[in-house]
Fold each of these.
Amino acid sequence: MSKSDKFRSDRLAGKSFPSEIDDPIVADPIMSGALKHFKASVDAWSASAYSRQKSAVRAAQHSWRLAASWALGCLLVAGSLAGGLYERRQRQEAVRAAEIKAETQKAAQKIDLARAAEAEQHLSLTRVATNIATSRQPRAVKRAANSDEDLLATVDNDVSRQVPAAMEPLAQMIDGNGTN
Amino acid sequence: MAAGIAVKPMSAQAAQEIAAREFASIVESHRPQIFRFLLASLRDVDLAETLTQECFLKAHRNWSHFRGDSSAMTWLMRIAINLQKDHWRNRRLQFWRHTQANAVGVDEAGEWLPNGERSAEQQILAREQVGQVWKAVENLSQRQRTVFLLRYVEEQELSEIAQATGLSEGTVKAHLSRALAKVRAELRGTR
């Protein structure tokens, strides 16, 4: 017979648990009655204590479940709040970043415009300068040429004046020959 | 040619599942009885619950060694009796003050009685008798108390009590006789 068969037969047969207290030792009806009452008393006490223990366990389980559900609920609420706040902060940061970017772009554009204006101004100044320079150049060239001619004339004069006396006959000869 | 029936060997997991199911059904059916016996022996609800849990824990650990020589109830009761013995031994050594403080008094234990269809007078008489039996049980030796409770509360056969306690049937009868004599004396003394 297997364990389970034995166990089942124990449960079903019920012969191990006599329902009546009919022990031959207990012949006295008062004694028998007292023992019956005693058994009933122990049964009632045990059943009450056992059900209380069970309900206490159930209550503990229930309270544990309640606490767990509360904790989970709080966690979810906190999580959703934190998520919302995080999302909001992210959006704010994105907006701020976009603003900063736009400002930087504007500043860069301004700088570019300023540079372009400066470059244009510089170009116009250069043009003016070149114009001035080109307008002044012929005069200078003329002046320089004049001065060169003057110089040469003075040099010629000087040179001609400073011809040594020793060379005079030759000069005269040239003149004579030339004239001749 | 003989046609043999192919028997599939049971896997270890399946065997474990069956054993677990068997044990669960045993716990469900015998737990109240073990608790009742320990409660009557100790008169302490918390302690009875603790020892009941220990009893089934021990039974679970040794479930594979249970060969089914006796009924499951007898086997469990034997474990419970041993745990109770250990408890008394420990209580004598260390914790007697604490456990005595937690135990319910005899008068309080005697208050538990189902109303039934009795008159108020009969109920008072029954309560008195229950109180007297509790008093007598309190004064019994540990073995006498165990045998008495197994016989008159758990309604076990003498052979089963002998198996559960590890005593011979003759010894069980002797203890039971002495216990009954003390109970009778208590009842007569106040009659």
Amino acid sequence: MRELPTLPAMPAPEPTAEGYTRREALVMGLFALAAAATTTGCAVDRQAFDDFVAKHFKDLSPAELQDRLAQMEKRYTESYGKPVKVSATPAQEGVLFGYALDLSRCIGCRRCVYGCVEENNQSRDPQTHWITVLEMDKEDGVNLQNANAFYDHETVPAPGKFYMPVACQQCENPPCVKVCPVAATWKEPDGIVVIDYDWCIGCRCCISACPYGARRFNWGTPHIPKDEFNPVTEYLGNRPRQRGVVEKCSFCIQRVRKGLYPKCVEVCPVGARKFGNQLDPDSEIRYIIENKRVYILKEELNTQPKFFYYYGL
Amino acid sequence: MTLISKVGNFVTGTARMAFLGGNKVYYAWLAFLAACIVQALFAYAHQYDRGLISTSMRDSVSWGFYIGNFTFLVGVAAAAVLLVVPAYVYDWKPIKEVALFGELLAVASIVMCLLFVLVDMGRPDRFWHILPFIGRMNLPSAIMAWDAIVLNIYLAVNLVVASYLVYCGYHGIQYNKKFVWPLVIFSIPMAISIHTVTAFLYNGMASRPYWNSAILAPRFIASAFCSGPALLLILFQILRKVSAFEIKDEAIHKVAELMAYAMGFNLFLFGAEVFKEYYSNTHHLVHYEYLFAGLHGEPSPIAWYAWMSLAFAVISFFLFLIPKTRRNIVTMNIGCVLIYASVYIEKGIALIIPGFTPDQLGQVYAYVPSSTELRVAAGVFGVGFLLFTLMVKVSVAILFERPQAEAQPAHAEAQPARA
Amino acid sequence: MRMRPVRLMASGLFAASLLTTACRPVQEHGPRWGKAATAAKQADDTTKSTAKTPVKTVAAQFPVAPPPFSDGVFPCSECHGKTDVVNRTPHPVEFHEDIVLHHDEKNRWCLDCHDARNRDKLHLADGRLIDFTESYRLCGQCHGPTLRNWKAGEHGKRTGSWSGEKQYLLCASCHSPHSPGFKPLKPQPAPVRQEAIK
């Protein structure tokens, strides 16, 4: 038999410390197909592949989680030009968060909206606001059909109007969690409803299901100016999101799990916002729930929010 | 022939049947569909590159043209049952010969449904998250997960039955009733289930009072049954003219009659919804006001579609109900077009948009599909119609144009392969 | 000046009630704020007699932010001596023209809150002197329910940690004592209309 010409040696694929699992190999094949089919012509680089096969947050082992956090920190530090920290702080025991907002005090200044935007790394272009402030007539009361989110006065409060900021109510019986087909959103033990941005498929069932208009979708690629980026981030909270995934208020999970108040509570100039642990009988949130006239938005839907509007005056 | 070579033969043979032997009109039609698909690929590439921001959907109206078409097409797929029930359950010969075409329509429709879901996803590269075992399915609570399951089962059942029947027809062997019949009977509750589950997707949402109605599932089934077969009736008449396809007038008239009753029921349910909203006159009426008129002094961009849909529905109902107009070929075809258009609007624009307008906090965003959405949707329809055209051409060729080979038992011994 | 007996009794009762309210062990309307509550609870739980546990001063129970003085105005005693003769009848003053009183000005004037002899202090209705850091006690004389809510953390703002140390803001930190009503603010921009997002 004549000698066959030798073929050049093919470069071996880069193995990880653990090597490729069977599932990784399967999705690698799928990814290769997907990559070939797109006109973006993305190279099968390690980062894109890691994103593609990324496991659900709840399926990550502690070592894998640390690995992922380190990867993310490296990536975000490069992108934003400052040292970025990504944590995955677990919920504290014996904590169920509660939030109260005094409707008689809110003046609709929107400082909470923009404080939140800065703290939680929301996209500036296209613009994303987690908090919507509704202006309604005092005579009419809470009537969402006559609410205006786009008011623009010289000064607030405008005469005869009152203001109701709405963001995620962190429901105890959340419809968004119920409808997500891939379980990318769930309720944590301390009551915060979180989203795994790397698992969300962007089907927007949750946006349809939310009665409070709290969820936002990244229709385009989010942009945050580098100098305004908040480098203290949380995996399930304010780390930069990608295009095509859903996001929403997380009660500033990166702050509250370290014992701080959410940003909106701190920036409110009139002290209309209150926050605390509902399970602590000495907290101000318990005082409000027990002593004030508390109002729950769309209570008849039985979502059991952690957000209590009240009338302090 | 061994089984493998039989299947191989079937594949190459049917491919030849699909692409060869057609007339100029046929190839023009294929070219048109191919053009639709190609332009859609460019449009979708643009959408994949920029994201869904290239559609008109925004946070207030987060589902739009794609999901509207998806909902309509699930109904069309479910409508195959309108042919299957008389054919297999009642063994009514005139329809039995053509029930296959209902199943082919179901296959093409489900393929289009799955494509519409894919183009609507924010992260289509993560589609594997919804697959069982390698992904994470949020069962039993997520209706979308159930929808994925039932749609794929229905697709599989129809694909298996249709392929098998065509395969048997191709090789001239008698199909195995014991294999086909249970699958076909199973496809009947599956057809109901796909559209019921799709309806549950909407009516389970307490956040959207326009959809949160108990009769949404029955409405979906009724409107599906009256619109899906319309396409088939027109198709049968065309096939009768251009090929050896045979269908008795009786069969066409029976299907039209069943469509009349389905539309009657659909109108009744619609009337029930309208009564409830207008009579109870709660804040939830605001969605119907947007649908039929407008809000805050602004006329609604969809109002005239809604009225058109209603008018078409009533007209086509009478056209199909009255035996004279049902049997008259002109009025029957007018009725088919009107009924299809009516339900297309009812399940698309008139279902999705008022559900989101005004949104959960009372804000109004007037959604009108963008050019990207229209182009991509045209491409998806192109894929579906192309698939359906090819399958129909093959089926007509096999069932009506080839001389029937002697019937052989399905479990005949395989002939030894040629040396 | 000697106080009349009735006034003495009234102010004594007031002081007593204030102290007992502040120092009473946790019951339904006891102190609810972090450290004070924990201390009171511990005192209640571990000892039968509260006499053994030292009662915290009012100031220590409410760690407040520094009083928001205008630049250079404090200490007032740099200008106001202790032996100045003072006209206690309300009259226009020559200095401090920048302060326009808009706080029940028909019935109150400067010396109803500021002490006539020691301008570095405020005085309660019974004449007792209090520091500017405890000005909430003075506000609470008229605004009782508000003071109660403030102590519970419902009124006003507290910064710090929801689960630990908190710092209160004085009433005067947000409400100018001379003109306490909030002035209207310019709102930050309205959200971009979704139609404009391309």
Amino acid sequence: MDISIEIKGLTKNYGKKKALSEVSLSIGPGMFGLLGPNGAGKTTLMKVLTALVEKNGGEVTVCGVPVEDSRQIRNMTGYLPQDFSMYGNMNAYEALDYLALLSGMNRAERKVKVPEMLEKVNLREKQKTKVRSMSGGMKRRLGIAQAIIHDPKVIIVDEPTAGLDPEERVRFRNLLCEIAKDRIVLLSTHIVGDIEATCENIAVLNQGKICFDGKLTKLLSLVEGKVYSAEIAAVELEKVKQKYMVTGILTTGSTANIKIIADDKPFPQARQVQPDVEDAYMYLMHREEGKR
Amino acid sequence: MFGAMFLKECGQVVKSLTYYIYVVVFVLFMTSQMSSEDLENLQEPLPGQPYYGETVTKDETLIMEGTLAKLMQDVWRNSFATYPLGFYKGITLTDSEKKQAEEILARCTGKSYETLEEEMKRHFGQYDQVSPEETMAASASYKVSVKEGFTYAEFQTAMEEICRLVGKGSSYEKTEYENEVYVPMTYEQAKEEFDALCSQDGFTRAYMRLFCDYAGIMLAILPVFVGVSRALRDRRAKVQQVIFSKPASGALIIGSRYLANLVMVGIPVIVTAFLLQQPYYYKAKTFGIQGDLLAFLKVPCLWLLPEIMIVLALAFLITEFTDTIAAVFVQTAWGIGGLFAGDTLVGNFGLKLVTRWNTLGQSMYYASLKNELLRNKGFYCLLAGVCLILTILVYERKRRKGGSLIWKNI
């Protein structure tokens, strides 16, 4: 089976507002990160891919199936929405069993798969906990369990780590990496750290348009040799911020350690440092801003 | 798959507070309305009793007198209740139409309208109009005599003219006025009626019709709360998106929810009917009659199931379409409006949502109206089916649109 997502010239409007404009992407097996600020159109793209909203133009196929064939698309995709929840009066087992039934699994299959999935997402011991009593992290883990229970070829997760504590976030990212074997996991987020830790291939969406598509190393190469670190007087900070793109500040008394992006060495005491994805992302966003 | 979904949805209903409120309100209402007085009064009529109850008369003179009395009051108030499609519609005549109606009255009675008006005022003046009992007694005893030599055929022609003035569905249609005039029963009639109650209804079926009369009033409104509560739960619990993304069809999701709600709303009705029926079943035995033990199931299924079906189906449709509690207001208006606009407490089913049978017995009259009742119930079953199909279509549309059809989706 062809495991891929092909998007060509995708357009989606909400009334007069253009949520997606001529988006083209090609996604293969493994983790794929979709990065972008809030309101960039990431959720809309996820919904088009899961047949939850109709596109206005372009072509989209998931594993060779056009998104218009919603029944087939739903069979081969698992979706974890941004604000996943379930009926508060159900416990973890009941909720997963209910959603597994909606995924078309018969009783015998559910009897095997539901405990297995709860085990996988580390909720087996909490299977009697009511959804209303679950923490954000537990809900997300239940959410990922329901998304993968019918063994879909494509898993789409929308902002899965927002609001989680650092430990939960790391655990959740690891879980996503584990399930990404032999399938596509499309991770949408505005948290750069999540992408950096899990994805090799990424796309950056801004204002409904793709402004970067490629490997993480390619994104990093955009700022190669342009990231500097320097210690300056705290009073100078405002002046520096106006002149350069500052991606990090650590103030200690009257001095401030800053990280800036600049095409040339900004001041004599500045030293070049290794860029990270956050620097590259900020640079990209700044460049896009400049284009507008 | 459908069975498993159905059971899960039943579980959802059982866990809902709205459902328990429905059960408590329904059971309290029914137990308070269904008194044991009827059971105690249920005796074989004996010759020489002062009163045997009332029955619909087939006496043409009495039909003419009763119908003209009603017509006189309607013309005087210039207010006619009609049910063109089974739903209430009040009619007020124009001056020229009213004049024509007055002339028809004069032609039937041989008296001028002014004389008839005076006689009516004199009659009602004898009663205390503040007391409801006196008002009812005044209406019951008010009669308008036809002129000498006036035939039943002429009367029918006159009523056809009235129907042309007030439109379809009035009390002046032949099928209506021939079943609307009540007279006190004779011993023979009472005996015949009692025998029919025993042989045709075995007591329990007649009692269940009375049960359905009261239950029908409640069930015209109460199930809407259960239906709306279920239909809104996905949005409230924020599970719409995740359920929309699942392969299960809209027909499976909505169909199983609907059936589960229907069954769960029906269970307290059937259980209450069964419990209230028992004294009548044993009373029948004291008369040496084998009562119909399954009447608690058969009669409510015919009388109440189509009503619950349409109320729930409409609740699902309106709620899925609007994502609001608008269905509660629509259904309450329909239920209460229909009830207060009702012109009779027994029979005259038409296409009314609440079919009334506020009497224990009248088995022969019921037998004559059974086809009309079946038409009414069949219509609502069909309408419920249409609403359900529309709900599934709306649900699928929402699914492709990513949420509400009316409100902004994020």
Amino acid sequence: MNFAEFRFWGYLLAGLAVVLLARLLARSLPEARRATFDKLGLLALGWFLLFCVSKTTFVVFLIVAVGSFAGLKWLLTHDPKRHRHYVWVLIPLQLLPLAYYKYANFAANQVLGLDLLSLKVLAIPVGISFYTFQKVAFVIDTLAFRQPLPRFLDYMNFAGFFPQIVAGPIERRSDLLPQMEAFRFRWSLHDFNVGTGWIVVGLFFKLCLADNLAGHFDGTSHTNAYLIWMANLIFGLRIYYDFAGYSLIALGLGRCLGIKLTLNFRSPYASSSSIEFWHRWHITLSQWFRDYIYVPLGGGRVVWWAFNVALVFVASGIWHGAGWNFMLWGAVHGTALILNRLLGPRLKLPTPIGWLLTMATSFGAWLAFYETRTEVLFEKAKALLTPRAYNLTALHEALQSWGNAGGFVMICFLVLSSGVLLTEWLSVRKTDQPYRLFFRPAVLIALIILIVVLAPGKNNGFIYFAF
Amino acid sequence: MDSSTSPFEPQRPVRAATLLLTACAVWAACVAYTLYLNPEVAHYVGGARIKTAWARMLTERHSPKTVVFGGSSCEFSIDGERLLNLYQLPVANFGGHAGMGAALIAESALGELRSGDTLIVAVEPGLLTGTADQTSLGIQFSVATHHPEWVLRPALGVEEASWIQVLVALRPGGYHTFTLLGKLIRGQPLYRYQLRDYRVSGWAQTAARYPFNDPEPYPASLSTNGRKLLEQLSAWCQERGIHVAYSLPWCYTPPEDVAKFKTVNAELLTQIAPIMAVLNDTRLGTDSDRSHFADTNYHLNESGTDLRCAEFAQALKSWQSRLP
């Protein structure tokens, strides 16, 4: 479900046309059946779009979704008093497909050194990390808050709502399920207009900024600190515009259908501390780790809180990918957060200094995110941390590599990206609503113009599809 | 945060239709710009007119003729006037920008071939060993020359572009927009080459001189797409009674790299030979004399062209004399 491809929009419109035509033919049905009909239509549309992504993705999704529901139903009906014990069996079962597709290769080949070719060529089903976590949260929420089991149809719509199934936001039962239970194909002009606004902003982020920045990413230098920082900067901006762009389009698509999804990003690069950064970056995943790992471990109120933070961030790193580099990425952020919590109240740094430190940490850590070769990663990290690497020769080399036409284009896109971040920051400062200013009609029209003129001919896929 | 709690919901809802209409209007403007104002596309469209006119003159007065096509190395090295006047060889040069893709340039040359003519494939090895996707520039060129069928229904059976791909390609894109902006700011010409750089036969020359890098290495084997293109060309020519052969373009190669590139090129030629004839070239596509080149390591200047045409004429005549 690549929102950046025309194919997706073609499939969506075709699928929607079939569903709405069938709905028109079934208009004589009683009201209750029409409600069911609408939900079935939404489910069929979601399954059709997921099937178009790939058969494997579709089948694995069905296994996880139906397996979770069946397991939960069994727990609630067969042994309601002792279900807390069985949940320790059900959750690992839910995680089994994720473990197999995403981590078996790393565990068997890299950790144990078994060299199993069948695992090396294993393709990760798109979105498996996202929908698996949503199902795990659903099971826990249902049991912890003693919620009733929903109708299977409503659950399947909750589990497979097409705008968010492959890359989030990871929705919670309390937010999404009631909306699915009340779902009807109602066309509200207001919702449609607001949804379109989100889609335009998301497409601008993805097509105009992320995809163009992607073409200027150059991670070939191992020793030139300036070039490595530039690669980190480009990657950090790209991944933000890529993932936030996807999330905003998902939000807009949901809204067009009358479903309100959770805002997954709130201008993270406007943060002036690591703690604030993680309240603004991939919010639904951060909340998942907070509610299902950090808090159950005792959260921040226990003596070993630093261990809890470290564990959560290393787990977050592993969620992103099976590799030592992702663990390191999580560990860097975990350390920054611990230091932030320990030293922040004592130092009380001015906001600009706090912002600079946060950005240095965030963009520095992106190195561990994109550089999967461990030896090269350490070589580059060493260059970044060695003062001698910031010499004039290296600067001259860097300036030379940015001095051509490609370098000029890169600088133009960096300026455009910075303008967008500045706009977000102004919005955050006024109302804490980072994308508010983009919704002005004139700005939306300007964004449309920029998308049409500047989007490259080829899109680069969404980075988070790999997770 | 739930999106519904945000104040983004405008007091006066933004109308989706307005946005859609804006997108359509801007797109139409982009198409018009690309087809009529884009300096790069305009240059190659102008060049195509000159080349076609020369080819048609040869068809009328000097049949059977020879058509040579390839990337810009071909455009800068095969001088039809010189070959006609000095060597009595009627040759039309259909070289184009390598960024258009080898298949598209080939399509543009096929229309001027008649039974009994000769087609010389002078495509750079890099284009035959790499991928051969439809490129934006190729699509822009085909539509601007009123030949969208070159990408939508290619005669050579290479992968077709969809209408959506064509529409997407008919926009400037970020790279073009900002490089153009940079040139405007610096007061530079909007495109490196000028239409006046073309001579009457379509041979291109430039006064521009830039330092250029050593040649990029390429694999010593044809890619699937490269092989398919050559096979399709060979079959297409055979069906129409057209002779076809391959000629290695010349590339500036530092003396220390000559042996390496000769080995790679020789290996490539052994793979091409079973598909189509190969013109004799003792240099195996390498030239270590920097004074033969203009602004890139594939663009020959006047003296380089003089030498290339002389050797090309000799090789072509020698091969043609052996044809049944």
